[in-house]
Amino acid sequence: MIFSSLDLAPDLQKAIDTCGYSQMTPIQEQAIIPARRGKDILAIAQTGTGKTAAFAIPILQQLLDKPRKNEQSTNPRALILTPTRELAEQLANTIGDYAQFLPLSITAVYGGVKMGGQQAKLKSGVDVLIATPGRILEHIAQCKVSLSSVEFVVLDESDRMLDMGFVADVQSLLELTSSKRQTLLFSATLSPSVNQLSHKLLKNHLEIRASKENITADTVEHVVYSVEERRKIDLFMELLEEYNWFQVLVFTSTKEQAEQLRIKLKKHPVAACHGDISQGARRRALADFKSAKIQVLIATEVAARGLDIQGLEYVVNFNLPYLAEDYVHRIGRTGRAGNKGHAISFVSREEERNLDAIQRLIGQRIKRIVRPGFEVLQRNSLIDKVASQRRAGRKNKVSQTQIDIDSSNKDYRNAKPKKTKVKKPSKKRARRR
Q1: Residues 149 and 291 placed together within one structural domain of the fold
Q2: What is the SS3 assignment for 329?
Q3: Number of H helices, E strands in the chain
Q4: Cα–Cα distance between 44 and 61 in angstroms, integer?
Protein backbone atom coordinates (compact mmCIF):
# COMPACT_ATOMS: atom_id res chain seq x y z
CA MET A 1 0.00 0.00 0.00
CA ILE A 2 1.36 3.44 -0.92
CA PHE A 3 1.02 6.67 1.07
CA SER A 4 -0.54 8.55 -1.82
CA SER A 5 -3.60 6.29 -1.53
CA LEU A 6 -4.42 7.67 1.94
CA ASP A 7 -5.93 10.95 0.63
CA LEU A 8 -3.90 13.05 3.06
CA ALA A 9 -3.78 16.84 3.13
CA PRO A 10 -1.64 18.07 0.18
CA ASP A 11 1.02 19.67 2.39
CA LEU A 12 1.27 16.56 4.57
CA GLN A 13 1.60 14.35 1.48
CA LYS A 14 4.24 16.75 0.14
CA ALA A 15 6.27 16.34 3.34
CA ILE A 16 6.00 12.54 3.16
CA ASP A 17 7.21 12.63 -0.45
CA THR A 18 10.07 14.91 0.58
CA CYS A 19 11.08 12.39 3.26
CA GLY A 20 11.30 9.77 0.51
CA TYR A 21 8.38 7.66 1.75
CA SER A 22 6.39 5.75 -0.84
CA GLN A 23 5.47 2.20 0.22
CA MET A 24 4.04 1.70 3.70
CA THR A 25 5.49 -0.80 6.15
CA PRO A 26 3.17 -3.44 7.71
CA ILE A 27 2.68 -1.47 10.95
CA GLN A 28 1.85 1.67 8.96
CA GLU A 29 -0.65 -0.19 6.77
CA GLN A 30 -2.47 -1.57 9.79
CA ALA A 31 -2.34 1.45 12.12
CA ILE A 32 -2.68 4.67 10.08
CA ILE A 33 -6.24 4.25 8.82
CA PRO A 34 -7.89 3.17 12.13
CA ALA A 35 -5.85 5.76 14.04
CA ARG A 36 -7.02 8.47 11.63
CA ARG A 37 -10.60 7.40 12.37
CA GLY A 38 -10.05 8.01 16.09
CA LYS A 39 -9.61 4.41 17.25
CA ASP A 40 -7.57 3.61 20.37
CA ILE A 41 -4.70 1.28 19.42
CA LEU A 42 -2.27 -1.09 21.09
CA ALA A 43 0.46 -1.74 18.50
CA ILE A 44 3.26 -4.29 18.89
CA ALA A 45 6.01 -4.08 16.28
CA GLN A 46 9.74 -4.66 16.31
CA THR A 47 12.12 -1.73 16.32
CA GLY A 48 12.88 -0.13 12.96
CA THR A 49 9.54 -0.86 11.29
CA GLY A 50 8.29 2.71 10.96
CA LYS A 51 6.29 3.11 14.19
CA THR A 52 6.80 6.88 14.38
CA ALA A 53 5.07 7.51 11.06
CA ALA A 54 2.34 5.04 12.04
CA PHE A 55 1.16 7.25 14.89
CA ALA A 56 2.39 10.72 13.84
CA ILE A 57 0.81 10.91 10.37
CA PRO A 58 -2.79 10.16 11.49
CA ILE A 59 -2.47 12.61 14.38
CA LEU A 60 -1.16 15.40 12.15
CA GLN A 61 -3.99 14.77 9.69
CA GLN A 62 -6.61 14.94 12.46
CA LEU A 63 -5.12 18.18 13.77
CA LEU A 64 -5.61 19.63 10.29
CA ASP A 65 -9.14 18.22 10.00
CA LYS A 66 -10.18 19.68 13.38
CA PRO A 67 -8.78 23.21 13.87
CA ARG A 68 -8.50 24.63 17.40
CA LYS A 69 -11.79 25.70 18.92
CA ASN A 70 -10.03 28.41 20.89
CA GLU A 71 -7.56 30.13 18.58
CA GLN A 72 -6.03 32.01 21.53
CA SER A 73 -4.99 28.82 23.30
CA THR A 74 -1.28 27.91 23.30
CA ASN A 75 -1.59 24.58 25.11
CA PRO A 76 -0.76 21.32 23.29
CA ARG A 77 -3.41 19.27 21.53
CA ALA A 78 -1.28 16.14 21.15
CA LEU A 79 1.02 14.67 23.78
CA ILE A 80 3.66 12.04 22.96
CA LEU A 81 5.35 10.48 25.99
CA THR A 82 8.66 8.70 25.60
CA PRO A 83 11.16 7.30 28.14
CA THR A 84 14.47 8.95 27.20
CA ARG A 85 15.88 12.34 26.24
CA GLU A 86 17.48 10.98 23.07
CA LEU A 87 14.24 9.47 21.84
CA ALA A 88 12.28 12.65 22.64
CA GLU A 89 14.71 14.74 20.62
CA GLN A 90 14.68 12.29 17.74
CA LEU A 91 10.88 12.14 17.67
CA ALA A 92 10.74 15.93 17.55
CA ASN A 93 13.06 15.97 14.53
CA THR A 94 11.22 13.19 12.70
CA ILE A 95 7.72 14.54 13.34
CA GLY A 96 9.01 18.00 12.49
CA ASP A 97 9.95 16.64 9.06
CA TYR A 98 6.40 15.33 8.57
CA ALA A 99 4.99 18.73 9.59
CA GLN A 100 7.51 20.90 7.73
CA PHE A 101 4.86 22.39 5.41
CA LEU A 102 2.05 22.50 7.99
CA PRO A 103 0.92 25.39 10.23
CA LEU A 104 1.64 23.27 13.32
CA SER A 105 4.23 23.67 16.07
CA ILE A 106 6.26 20.68 17.32
CA THR A 107 8.18 20.96 20.62
CA ALA A 108 10.10 18.51 22.83
CA VAL A 109 10.77 18.88 26.55
CA TYR A 110 13.12 16.59 28.47
CA GLY A 111 15.58 16.60 31.32
CA GLY A 112 19.31 17.30 31.21
CA VAL A 113 18.89 20.85 29.88
CA LYS A 114 17.70 24.11 31.44
CA MET A 115 13.95 24.67 31.60
CA GLY A 116 14.02 28.34 30.53
CA GLY A 117 14.28 27.71 26.79
CA GLN A 118 11.60 25.03 26.95
CA GLN A 119 9.26 27.34 28.87
CA ALA A 120 9.66 30.03 26.23
CA LYS A 121 8.62 27.56 23.50
CA LEU A 122 5.63 26.38 25.55
CA LYS A 123 4.53 29.98 26.12
CA SER A 124 4.66 30.78 22.40
CA GLY A 125 2.33 27.87 21.67
CA VAL A 126 2.64 24.21 20.74
CA ASP A 127 0.39 21.78 18.89
CA VAL A 128 2.35 18.54 19.35
CA LEU A 129 4.32 18.16 22.57
CA ILE A 130 6.89 15.37 22.90
CA ALA A 131 8.03 14.84 26.48
CA THR A 132 9.67 12.60 29.01
CA PRO A 133 7.30 12.07 31.97
CA GLY A 134 9.49 13.65 34.64
CA ARG A 135 10.20 16.88 32.78
CA ILE A 136 6.61 17.56 31.69
CA LEU A 137 5.49 17.09 35.31
CA GLU A 138 8.04 19.77 36.31
CA HIS A 139 6.59 22.21 33.78
CA ILE A 140 3.06 21.46 34.98
CA ALA A 141 4.09 22.00 38.62
CA GLN A 142 5.38 25.46 37.67
CA CYS A 143 2.12 26.20 35.82
CA LYS A 144 3.94 26.64 32.51
CA VAL A 145 1.69 24.26 30.57
CA SER A 146 -1.75 22.68 30.82
CA LEU A 147 -2.84 19.35 29.36
CA SER A 148 -6.55 20.13 29.46
CA SER A 149 -6.64 20.68 25.67
CA VAL A 150 -4.89 17.39 24.82
CA GLU A 151 -7.03 15.31 22.44
CA PHE A 152 -4.40 12.76 21.37
CA VAL A 153 -1.96 10.82 23.56
CA VAL A 154 0.79 8.48 22.38
CA LEU A 155 2.79 6.27 24.73
CA ASP A 156 5.87 5.38 22.71
CA GLU A 157 8.22 2.60 23.88
CA SER A 158 5.64 1.75 26.55
CA ASP A 159 7.46 -1.33 27.78
CA ARG A 160 10.61 0.69 28.42
CA MET A 161 8.67 3.37 30.30
CA LEU A 162 7.25 0.70 32.58
CA ASP A 163 10.69 -0.86 33.08
CA MET A 164 12.04 2.55 34.09
CA GLY A 165 9.28 3.04 36.68
CA PHE A 166 7.24 5.73 34.92
CA VAL A 167 3.85 4.03 35.27
CA ALA A 168 2.63 6.29 38.13
CA ASP A 169 3.81 9.44 36.29
CA VAL A 170 2.09 8.33 33.09
CA GLN A 171 -1.19 7.68 34.86
CA SER A 172 -0.99 11.07 36.62
CA LEU A 173 -0.41 12.84 33.31
CA LEU A 174 -3.27 11.10 31.53
CA GLU A 175 -5.65 12.14 34.32
CA LEU A 176 -4.90 15.75 33.35
CA THR A 177 -6.00 15.23 29.75
CA SER A 178 -9.48 15.13 28.27
CA SER A 179 -11.52 12.02 29.05
CA LYS A 180 -12.52 11.99 25.37
CA ARG A 181 -8.91 11.71 24.18
CA GLN A 182 -7.67 9.15 21.68
CA THR A 183 -4.84 7.01 23.09
CA LEU A 184 -2.25 5.11 21.06
CA LEU A 185 0.10 2.74 22.86
CA PHE A 186 3.14 1.55 20.89
CA SER A 187 5.64 -1.02 22.09
CA ALA A 188 8.29 -3.36 20.71
CA THR A 189 7.30 -6.13 23.14
CA LEU A 190 4.06 -7.17 24.83
CA SER A 191 4.87 -7.87 28.46
CA PRO A 192 2.18 -8.61 31.08
CA SER A 193 2.62 -5.09 32.48
CA VAL A 194 2.09 -3.50 29.04
CA ASN A 195 -1.00 -5.63 28.50
CA GLN A 196 -2.35 -4.60 31.90
CA LEU A 197 -1.66 -0.93 31.21
CA SER A 198 -3.44 -1.10 27.86
CA HIS A 199 -6.63 -2.38 29.50
CA LYS A 200 -6.50 0.49 32.01
CA LEU A 201 -5.90 3.31 29.55
CA LEU A 202 -7.44 2.26 26.24
CA LYS A 203 -11.12 2.21 25.34
CA ASN A 204 -12.46 -0.54 23.09
CA HIS A 205 -9.06 -0.62 21.46
CA LEU A 206 -7.70 -2.33 18.39
CA GLU A 207 -4.69 -4.60 18.95
CA ILE A 208 -2.16 -4.75 16.14
CA ARG A 209 0.76 -7.15 15.93
CA ALA A 210 2.72 -6.26 12.85
CA SER A 211 5.39 -8.86 13.57
CA LYS A 212 5.82 -11.92 15.71
CA GLU A 213 6.41 -10.78 19.28
CA ASN A 214 10.04 -10.31 20.36
CA ILE A 215 11.44 -11.61 17.05
CA THR A 216 14.43 -9.69 15.72
CA ALA A 217 14.74 -8.53 12.12
CA ASP A 218 15.60 -11.20 9.55
CA THR A 219 18.29 -8.91 8.17
CA VAL A 220 20.41 -9.17 11.34
CA GLU A 221 23.14 -11.82 11.68
CA HIS A 222 23.79 -12.85 15.30
CA VAL A 223 27.10 -14.19 16.62
CA VAL A 224 28.61 -14.61 20.09
CA TYR A 225 32.27 -14.75 21.08
CA SER A 226 33.13 -16.77 24.18
CA VAL A 227 35.66 -14.72 26.14
CA GLU A 228 36.82 -14.14 29.71
CA GLU A 229 35.37 -10.93 31.18
CA ARG A 230 38.86 -9.49 31.79
CA ARG A 231 39.83 -9.99 28.11
CA LYS A 232 36.83 -8.40 26.41
CA ILE A 233 38.61 -5.12 25.72
CA ASP A 234 41.54 -6.95 24.08
CA LEU A 235 39.15 -8.99 21.92
CA PHE A 236 37.22 -5.91 20.79
CA MET A 237 40.39 -4.05 19.83
CA GLU A 238 41.67 -7.05 17.87
CA LEU A 239 38.40 -7.45 15.94
CA LEU A 240 38.16 -3.70 15.32
CA GLU A 241 41.63 -3.67 13.75
CA GLU A 242 41.30 -6.92 11.81
CA TYR A 243 37.90 -6.27 10.22
CA ASN A 244 38.26 -2.47 10.04
CA TRP A 245 34.80 -1.92 11.49
CA PHE A 246 33.44 1.59 11.14
CA GLN A 247 30.39 3.13 12.80
CA VAL A 248 30.20 0.54 15.54
CA LEU A 249 27.66 1.02 18.34
CA VAL A 250 28.91 -0.70 21.52
CA PHE A 251 26.67 -1.34 24.53
CA THR A 252 28.11 -1.73 28.02
CA SER A 253 26.25 -2.48 31.23
CA THR A 254 27.80 0.32 33.31
CA LYS A 255 29.14 3.84 32.91
CA GLU A 256 32.49 2.69 34.34
CA GLN A 257 32.88 0.05 31.63
CA ALA A 258 31.98 2.60 28.97
CA GLU A 259 34.70 4.98 30.20
CA GLN A 260 37.32 2.22 30.48
CA LEU A 261 36.67 1.18 26.88
CA ARG A 262 36.68 4.81 25.68
CA ILE A 263 40.07 5.44 27.29
CA LYS A 264 41.48 2.21 25.85
CA LEU A 265 40.33 3.24 22.36
CA LYS A 266 41.63 6.81 22.56
CA LYS A 267 43.72 6.31 19.38
CA HIS A 268 40.47 5.83 17.44
CA PRO A 269 37.66 8.37 16.77
CA VAL A 270 35.51 7.38 19.75
CA ALA A 271 32.84 8.91 22.00
CA ALA A 272 30.71 7.76 24.91
CA CYS A 273 27.04 8.29 25.69
CA HIS A 274 25.91 7.65 29.26
CA GLY A 275 24.26 9.28 32.26
CA ASP A 276 27.36 11.16 33.51
CA ILE A 277 27.77 12.99 30.21
CA SER A 278 25.83 16.21 29.66
CA GLN A 279 22.91 16.27 27.28
CA GLY A 280 24.75 18.65 24.96
CA ALA A 281 27.81 16.38 24.78
CA ARG A 282 25.61 13.35 24.17
CA ARG A 283 23.81 15.18 21.38
CA ARG A 284 27.11 16.13 19.73
CA ALA A 285 28.46 12.58 20.07
CA LEU A 286 25.37 11.13 18.41
CA ALA A 287 25.46 13.74 15.63
CA ASP A 288 29.15 13.04 14.97
CA PHE A 289 28.47 9.31 14.92
CA LYS A 290 25.63 9.69 12.43
CA SER A 291 27.81 11.84 10.19
CA ALA A 292 30.62 9.21 10.31
CA LYS A 293 33.05 11.50 12.17
CA ILE A 294 33.23 8.93 14.97
CA GLN A 295 34.18 5.30 14.45
CA VAL A 296 32.95 3.88 17.77
CA LEU A 297 30.08 5.11 19.94
CA ILE A 298 29.99 3.48 23.38
CA ALA A 299 26.65 3.63 25.14
CA THR A 300 24.77 2.36 28.14
CA GLU A 301 21.04 1.56 28.04
CA VAL A 302 20.16 5.27 27.65
CA ALA A 303 20.81 4.88 23.92
CA ALA A 304 19.15 1.50 23.47
CA ARG A 305 15.71 2.71 22.45
CA GLY A 306 14.52 4.57 19.42
CA LEU A 307 17.85 5.73 17.98
CA ASP A 308 17.62 5.75 14.20
CA ILE A 309 21.14 5.63 12.75
CA GLN A 310 20.89 5.22 9.01
CA GLY A 311 23.04 2.43 7.59
CA LEU A 312 24.39 1.26 10.97
CA GLU A 313 25.93 -2.15 10.28
CA TYR A 314 27.47 -3.25 13.59
CA VAL A 315 26.11 -3.42 17.12
CA VAL A 316 28.39 -4.96 19.75
CA ASN A 317 27.13 -6.14 23.13
CA PHE A 318 30.25 -5.71 25.26
CA ASN A 319 28.09 -7.16 28.04
CA LEU A 320 24.84 -9.00 27.59
CA PRO A 321 21.86 -7.11 29.03
CA TYR A 322 20.31 -8.36 32.27
CA LEU A 323 16.86 -8.54 30.63
CA ALA A 324 16.58 -10.63 27.48
CA GLU A 325 14.06 -8.13 26.04
CA ASP A 326 16.74 -5.44 26.09
CA TYR A 327 18.81 -7.49 23.66
CA VAL A 328 16.01 -7.07 21.10
CA HIS A 329 16.04 -3.30 21.59
CA ARG A 330 19.82 -2.98 21.48
CA ILE A 331 20.31 -4.83 18.23
CA GLY A 332 17.26 -3.10 16.76
CA ARG A 333 19.64 -0.23 15.92
CA THR A 334 21.04 -2.33 13.03
CA GLY A 335 19.39 -4.17 10.15
CA ARG A 336 16.77 -1.44 9.76
CA ALA A 337 14.68 -0.77 6.65
CA GLY A 338 15.85 -3.96 4.96
CA ASN A 339 19.59 -3.26 5.36
CA LYS A 340 22.04 -5.95 6.47
CA GLY A 341 23.16 -5.81 10.09
CA HIS A 342 25.47 -7.65 12.48
CA ALA A 343 24.79 -8.23 16.19
CA ILE A 344 28.01 -9.28 17.94
CA SER A 345 28.01 -10.26 21.61
CA PHE A 346 30.88 -11.00 24.00
CA VAL A 347 29.82 -13.70 26.46
CA SER A 348 31.75 -14.67 29.58
CA ARG A 349 31.07 -17.78 31.66
CA GLU A 350 28.99 -15.70 34.05
CA GLU A 351 26.72 -14.53 31.21
CA GLU A 352 25.79 -17.95 29.83
CA ARG A 353 22.41 -17.88 31.62
CA ASN A 354 21.64 -14.51 30.05
CA LEU A 355 22.51 -15.95 26.64
CA ASP A 356 20.19 -18.91 27.17
CA ALA A 357 17.33 -16.53 28.03
CA ILE A 358 18.01 -14.43 24.91
CA GLN A 359 18.04 -17.48 22.65
CA ARG A 360 14.74 -18.67 24.09
CA LEU A 361 13.22 -15.23 23.58
CA ILE A 362 14.25 -14.76 19.95
CA GLY A 363 13.62 -18.41 19.12
CA GLN A 364 16.98 -19.21 17.60
CA ARG A 365 20.38 -20.63 18.49
CA ILE A 366 23.06 -17.99 18.05
CA LYS A 367 26.26 -18.98 16.26
CA ARG A 368 29.20 -19.23 18.67
CA ILE A 369 32.77 -18.33 17.66
CA VAL A 370 35.87 -19.35 19.61
CA ARG A 371 38.67 -16.90 18.83
CA PRO A 372 42.19 -18.41 18.98
CA GLY A 373 44.01 -16.97 21.97
CA PHE A 374 40.76 -16.04 23.73
CA GLU A 375 39.52 -19.53 24.61
CA VAL A 376 37.47 -19.85 27.78
CA LEU A 377 38.30 -22.81 30.00
CA GLN A 378 35.04 -24.63 30.60
CA ARG A 379 33.67 -24.47 34.11
CA ASN A 380 33.90 -28.20 34.88
CA SER A 381 37.47 -28.43 33.56
CA LEU A 382 38.48 -25.43 35.62
CA ILE A 383 36.93 -26.88 38.75
CA ASP A 384 38.77 -30.16 38.25
CA LYS A 385 42.05 -28.35 37.65
CA VAL A 386 41.76 -26.18 40.75
CA ALA A 387 40.71 -29.10 42.93
CA SER A 388 43.60 -31.21 41.66
CA GLN A 389 46.13 -28.48 42.40
CA ARG A 390 44.74 -27.94 45.85
CA ARG A 391 44.90 -31.63 46.63
CA ALA A 392 48.51 -31.60 45.51
CA GLY A 393 49.24 -28.98 48.15
CA ARG A 394 49.70 -26.05 45.76
CA LYS A 395 46.67 -24.04 46.84
CA ASN A 396 48.64 -20.81 47.27
CA LYS A 397 50.13 -21.08 43.77
CA VAL A 398 46.76 -21.02 42.03
CA SER A 399 46.32 -17.62 40.37
CA GLN A 400 43.20 -15.52 40.78
CA THR A 401 42.43 -15.83 37.07
CA GLN A 402 42.45 -19.60 37.37
CA ILE A 403 39.73 -19.55 40.00
CA ASP A 404 37.70 -16.72 38.48
CA ILE A 405 34.39 -18.54 38.60
CA ASP A 406 31.04 -18.05 40.23
CA SER A 407 31.58 -18.52 43.96
CA SER A 408 28.01 -19.69 44.31
CA ASN A 409 28.66 -22.77 42.16
CA LYS A 410 28.05 -25.88 44.26
CA ASP A 411 30.60 -28.00 42.40
CA TYR A 412 33.27 -25.41 43.13
CA ARG A 413 32.45 -25.34 46.83
CA ASN A 414 32.56 -29.14 46.95
CA ALA A 415 35.95 -29.14 45.26
CA LYS A 416 37.77 -28.16 48.48
CA PRO A 417 40.63 -30.50 49.41
CA LYS A 418 40.22 -32.90 52.28
CA LYS A 419 41.70 -31.76 55.57
CA THR A 420 44.86 -33.66 56.53
CA LYS A 421 45.44 -34.63 60.14
CA VAL A 422 48.60 -33.32 61.79
CA LYS A 423 50.45 -36.06 63.68
CA LYS A 424 51.00 -35.29 67.36
CA PRO A 425 54.45 -36.05 68.80
CA SER A 426 54.60 -39.31 70.70
CA LYS A 427 54.63 -39.25 74.48
CA LYS A 428 58.06 -40.89 74.44
CA ARG A 429 59.53 -38.11 72.24
CA ALA A 430 57.82 -35.46 74.37
CA ARG A 431 59.47 -36.76 77.56
CA ARG A 432 62.91 -36.55 75.92
CA ARG A 433 62.31 -32.88 75.14
Answers
A1: no
A2: helix
A3: 17, 14
A4: 22
* 193 and 166 together in one domain: yes
Determine, yes or no, domain membership for 424: no
By CB neighbour count within 10 A (0-12 exposed, 13-18 middle, 19+ buried), where does 351 fall? buried
Identify whether residues 265 and 408 lie together within a single domain: no
pLDDT along the chain (433 residues), means of 10: 93 94 91 96 81 95 89 89 88 94 95 90 94 95 92 91 86 92 89 86 90 66 94 93 90 89 90 82 86 90 64 92 82 80 93 91 90 76 57 53 43 46 52 48
**Residue where a domain stops, chosen among 209, 235, 267:** 209
Spatial strand order of the sheet with 248-251 comes to: 270-273, 296-299, 248-251, 314-317, 341-347, 220-226, 367-369
Rounded Cα distance, 378 and 89, in Å: 45
Q: What is the pLDDT of residue 60?
A: 97
Q: Are 173 and 201 in contact (CB under 8 A)?
A: no
Work out the angle between the directed axes of helices 26-36 and 51-65 (0-180°, nearest 10).
Answer: 20
Q: What is the pTM of this model?
A: 0.65
Distance CA 28, CA 35 (A): 10
First to last CA, the chain: 103
- Within a domain: residue 238? yes
Going by the DSSP 8-state scheme, the letter that residue 420 receives in this structure is P
433 occurs within a structural domain: no
* CB contact set of 270 (below 8 Å; sequence gap of 6+): 262, 294, 295, 296, 297, 298
46, 216 contact by CB (below 8 A): yes
What's the one-letter identity of residue 218?
A: D
Q: Can you tell me the distance from the alpha carbon of 311 to that of 271, in angstroms, rounded to the nearest whole number?
A: 19
Q: Are residues 227 and 205 in the same domain?
A: no
Question: Do residue 142 and residue 245 come from a single domain?
Answer: no
Q: Strands across the sheet with 106-109, in order? A: 106-109, 128-131, 78-81, 152-155, 182-187, 41-44, 206-209
CA dist 278 and 272 (Å) reads 11
pLDDT of 392 reads: 67
Domain that holds residue 161: 3-209
418 in any annotated domain = no
CATH number for the domain including 142?
Answer: 3.40.50.300
Question: What total of structural domains would you count in the chain?
Answer: 3
269 and 140 within one domain: no
Alpha carbon distances (Å) from 58 to 39, 123, 148, 242, 253: 11, 26, 21, 47, 37
Which of 190, 209, 228 is the last residue in one of the domains? 209
For residues 349 and 393, membership in a common domain is answered with no
